[in-house]
Design goal:
The complex is a heterodimer of chains A (about 280) and B (about 300). Chain A is mainly α and about 280 residues long. Chain A has a domain of about 180 residues: MetI-like (MetI-like fold, Orthogonal Bundle), CATH 1.10.3720. Chain A contains twelve helices and no strands. In chain A, helix 1 crosses helix 12, helix 3 runs antiparallel to helix 9 and helix 7 crosses helix 9. Chain B has 13 helices and two strands. In chain B, helix 3 crosses helix 7, helix 7 packs antiparallel against helix 10 and helix 10 runs antiparallel to helix 13. Classes of the chains: A mainly alpha (about 280), B mainly alpha (about 300). Chains A and B meet through helix 1, helix 3, helix 4, helix 5 and helix 7 of A and helix 1, helix 3, helix 4, helix 5 and helix 7 of B.
């Protein structure tokens, strides 16, 4: 019975993963191609690291990469702080005035088209520039605010899911022993949701690092982030140094995700073991 | 019995605890609430306002909607001309319809590819399942822009796909693949496939296998069992996956801009062009409002599906 069907499923899996990964693989291979025509393989001079050298010598790319890195880390930190508070409010305070609107405001940024979010934020910054002068000059500050606003929604999902699994009796025990709510949060809850906070931070960093559309609306002429620079380059067609850049970024992300994944699994196992040991009088 | 002093101290402690809790609670809710109100809710009201404004040659290029006249009367000047303009112009209507069409076809293609993949992952042996799952999630973490860009080289005139077609003798001259609607479908499915696979995976994984065994024992063919048991029981996942692909695809900008041709009309691109190209903020705002109205129905549907999924 399973023969034909599992063959079909296997083929779909093979095709699906080939579809997902072959383009990335091709991009990596072409980054070592000496030819400026990217997809025409220059067998005589390839493989070469010439495009990588060119990439690191390109001051414009390096400058915008630094700017993107700064914005992304600032954004991730802000989004994690606000996102943790919001997740806590949604998960622990079941009833408060305006909760329905709050729920809508925390999920909408995830599903709305970026052109709408970007357009609306720009109109806000324009309206505010007479009232709050330091927002007037659009640049890193306005980009960071915009990124926090939309990446926060993703952070909330991650942290809320984790908060839902935290054993409430631990918090209640601490309360009964006289710990104040703030202390309970920092000593009990925070360590328990730390993995979610870490993955939320990484997620927010990547969302910001990668964003083009919202950034284009709220950025000023003096601030060009890496995606903006890449987009303006690739609109004119394929470009060999962008292949080199893409290869580096893909490798970094892959290493990070694999390391984070293994670390998280190990942390989880150790915690389970500790919990078991705590309840086991023999040990 | 405790002494009055002890009782008093205890009372104070309790009061402080409750008070601290109230204050903390207020702070925890208010901070993100305030942020989202200022940077998400208010901007929408501004878009709505600008959609009713007239264009002017200045910076910002819109006439004020609310004006204090000389005799201290607040005058509200709402112009419906932008909406009349949007609905009266065939180009905008075509852009909306085409966006829905492209998003719909892409969603269907993603479902046809994503369902068997999700099925395969959910039924894979333990260790494999985690690896395959990670492999689906991984592209989501790598740059969206660069993943779309990867297709520029592959689909190009002298890209590997055309090389292959020519070498096999299937074509005598390179096939024009870039700057077509097909390239946009491809880019959409490629970019949003993980969004389709993940909810499908969790729906299929939850499926009670004994139902399928019972059906097989009673002589039901696998194909029939799939259509009468597996498919209906995973329909929540199908809805969730389809909405998660469809909603962002309707307003997509990057994919049609990079892979589509000049005649690939999609609304995200039209809003962008109105704003950056024509600097017509009122019309861009009116378009955004109409797009929002179209999408809000789907967003509410998605919220309902996800709420039901959480309860299950």
């Amino acid at each position: 019975m399973p023969g034909r069907r599992s063959l079909f499923v296997l083929m779909a899996l093979g095709f699906g993963f080939a579809f997902l990964y072959l383009p990335i693989l091709a991009m990596i291979i072409y980054s070592f191609n000496a030819s400026r025509l990217v997809t025409v393989w220059d067998a005589a001079n390839s493989p070469t690291l010439a495009w990588y050298v060119e990439l690191f010598q390109n001051a414009q790319i390096m400058e915008s990469a630094r700017l993107s890195f700064r914005i992304a880390s600032l954004n991730a930190t802000g989004a994690v702080i606000l996102g943790t508070l919001a997740a806590f409010a949604l998960e622990r305070y079941r009833r408060f005035r305006g909760r329905a609107l709050f729920g809508l405001l925390t999920t909408a940024p995830m599903v709305l088209p970026e052109v709408i979010t970007g357009l609306s934020l720009l109109l806000l910054f324009v309206a505010l520039q007479d009232v709050v002068p330091w927002l007037g000059g659009r640049g890193a500050t306005t980009i960071t605010i915009a990124h926090i606003t939309f990446s926060m929604a993703y952070v909330i999902v991650v942290i809320q899911a984790r908060l839902a699994t935290v054993d409430r009796s631990l918090e209640e025990a601490a309360m009964d022993l006289g710990a104040r709510p703030w202390k309970v949060f920092f000593v009990i809850t925070l360590p328990l949701i730390m993995p979610a906070i870490a993955s939320g931070w990484v997620l927010a960093f990547i969302l910001s690092w990668d964003d083009l559309v919202i950034t284009s609306f709220v950025s000023g002429p003096s601030s060009t982030t890496l995606p903006q620079l890449v987009f303006s380059k690739v609109r004119l067609g394929v470009s060999p140094d962008i292949n080199a850049l893409a290869t580096i970024l893909v490798l970094i992300v892959t290493v990070c995700v694999v390391v984070a994944g293994t670390y998280m699994v190990r942390l989880e196992r150790r915690r389970a073991r500790d919990a078991q040991a705590a309840f086991d009088p023999a040990s | 019995m405790s002494s009055p002093a002890e009782r008093l101290a205890d009372g104070f402690r309790r009061l402080r605890r409750a008070g601290g809790g109230q204050l903390g609670r207020w702070f925890v809710i208010a901070l993100p609430y305030l942020w989202l109100t200022i940077f998400f809710l208010v901007p929408f009201l501004i878009v709505l306002k600008i959609a009713f404004a007239n264009i002017q040659l200045a910076m910002p290029p819109v006439e004020p909607v609310m004006i204090w006249t000389a005799d201290k009367v607040l005058q509200l000047r709402l112009h419906f001309s932008n909406f009349a303009f949007v609905f009266g112009d065939e180009l905008y209507i075509a852009a909306f319809l085409n966006s829905l069409k492209v998003a719909g076809i892409s969603t269907l293609l993603a479902l046809l590819l994503g369902y068997p993949m999700a099925y395969g992952i959910a039924r894979a042996p333990g260790a494999w399942r985690n690896i395959l799952f990670l492999l689906v999630v991984l592209p989501f973490f790598t740059s969206f822009l660069l993943r779309v860009y990867a297709w520029l080289g592959l689909l190009g005139r002298n890209g590997p796909i055309n090389d292959l077609l020519l070498a096999l003798g299937l074509r005598h001259e390179p096939l024009q693949m870039l700057q077509t609607d097909y390239a946009v479908y491809l880019g959409m499915v490629y970019s949003y496939l993980p969004f389709m696979v993940l909810p499908l995976y969790s729906a299929i994984e939850k499926l009670d296998l004994t139902l399928l065994e019972a059906a097989a024992d009673l002589g039901c063919r696998p194909t029939k069992a799939f259509f009468t048991i597996t498919l209906p029981l995973t329909q929540e996942g199908i809805f969730a996956g389809c909405l998660l692909v469809f909603i962002p695809a309707v307003g997509e900008y990057v994919i049609p801009a990079l892979l589509g041709g000049p005649d690939t009309l999609m609304i995200g691109r039209v809003v962008w062009d109105e704003f950056f190209g024509n600097r017509d903020w009122p019309v861009a705002s009116a378009l955004a409002i109409v797009l929002l109205a179209i999408l809000s129905g789907f967003v509410l549907l998605l919220q309902r599906v996800q709420a039901r999924e959480r309860e299950a």
